[in-house]
Amino acid sequence: MKTPLKLLTACMAAAILFLAVPVMAEKDRDHGDSIFSEKGPGQRELTPERIERIMKRLAEKNPEKAKELEQLRQQDEQKFKDELRKIARKQFTQRGGRKGRGGRERGKDEYGQGKNGKPPRRDGPEHHDFRKGMKRRIQQHEQEYIEWLEQNNPEHAKGLAEIKEKDPGLYHRKLAIGMKKHRGIMLAEENDPKLAELLKNDLQLKKERNELLTLINATTDEQQKQQLTEKLKDVVSNRFDLLMEKRQLRYESMLKRLEKLKEQAQKHQTELEKLKDSRQQQIQKRLDAMLEQKEKFNWE
User: Fold this and answer.
1) In angstroms, how far is CA 47 from the centroid of its own chain?
2) Neighbours of 189 (CB within 10 A)
3) Computed over its alpha carbons, how large is the radius of gyration of the chain?
4) From CA 23, how far away is CA 250, in angstroms rounded?
5) Would you state the pLDDT for residue 125?
6) CATH number corresponding to 193-262
């Protein structure tokens, strides 16, 4: 029984080496196949198979657009993928991306019916309770974010409070953007403070990078442009080192999970060995239990 455990360990080790390459990252101005172009959470990879599926659906509904994209694909692969992601999101929404599990609308079964075989009413109590619960959860998340912001960036929290009084619509838009930007940091603080600190630093470096790029594009003074470019180089260099640290943390986390899996596999193997050794006893014990139940007098 030692061979299966070695094989399992080897497979898990291979999985670690494979998964250690891509890590949690951000969608920003960086493009290309490099450490700076990591996919963000929830962003599915555009595999050749997925690209073909999207293009096939597009060709059926909009042949002209599909032809236009094929031309872009030959000219600029990155722009083609960016445009394709937009189309994929649109296709997802059109196919009912807001439906529940199994592709069904909330409150309906697989036949499109609600409770007791009746279509769910949007003004009924079920729909009202769902919306009420959803609103309560959103408010809870918003409150948690505001409290986190007050501790980590009081000035920004104060600015948001002022906007809330003047323009509630703008406030909620800025709140949603901020929650999306800082969500990874908030989650990391609970489980991995070191990663949270790296994410905070990365956010600052990206801000500096964007500001420098804006200044470089705006200036016509070559000397000033050269000075700004040198600063940008330092920022990019710092980001590279930071992203490498993030990858190292991810790799170390995977190693820890591998050790736990190995312990579980070893425990499972030991249990299997015990069961194999007691095969005859287990069979006889089960047989006796079945016969004993059958022979008991039924008083009912």
Assistant:
1) 17
2) 16
3) 28
4) 7
5) 63
6) 1.20.58
Domain positions in the chain: 44-100, 135-191, 193-262
For residue 39 the two structure tokens come to: 């996919």
Q: How far apart are CA 281 and CA 213, in angstroms?
A: 75
Alpha-helical regions (H) of the chain: 2-19, 48-61, 63-75, 77-94, 125-152, 154-166, 168-191, 193-218, 222-277, 279-295
pLDDT at 102: 44
pLDDT at 2: 44
84 contact partners, CB below 8 Å, separation of at least 6: 46, 51, 54, 55, 69
Per DSSP, helices labelled H in 192-221 are: 193-218
Q: In whole angstroms, give the CA distance from residue 163 to residue 194.
A: 33
d(CA 62, CA 67): 9
Look-up of token digits 């630093």: 201
Q: How far apart are CA 47 and CA 54, in angstroms?
A: 11
DSSP label at 121?
P
Query: pLDDT at position 105, please?
Result: 46
User: Which portions of the chain are predicted below pLDDT 70?
Assistant: 1-46, 93-128, 294-300
Report the distance separating Cα 177 and Cα 29, nearest Å.
17
What is residue 127's predicted lDDT score, i.e. its pLDDT? 60
Two structure tokens written together for 231:
């600063």
CA pair distance 32, 234, nearest whole angstrom: 20
Whole-angstrom distance, CA of residue 178 vs CA of residue 176: 5
How many CA atoms are closer than 13 Å to the CA of 135, on its beta-carbon side?
A: 6
End-to-end CA distance of the chain: 49
pLDDT (0 to 100) of residue 22: 36
Q: Rounded to 10 degrees, what is the CA torsion of 152, 154, 160, 161?
A: 130
pLDDT, position 211: 93
Tell me if 205 sits within 8 A of 259, measured CB to CB: no
**CA–CA distances in Å: residue 284 to residues 121, 245, 271, 281, 290:** 58, 58, 19, 5, 10
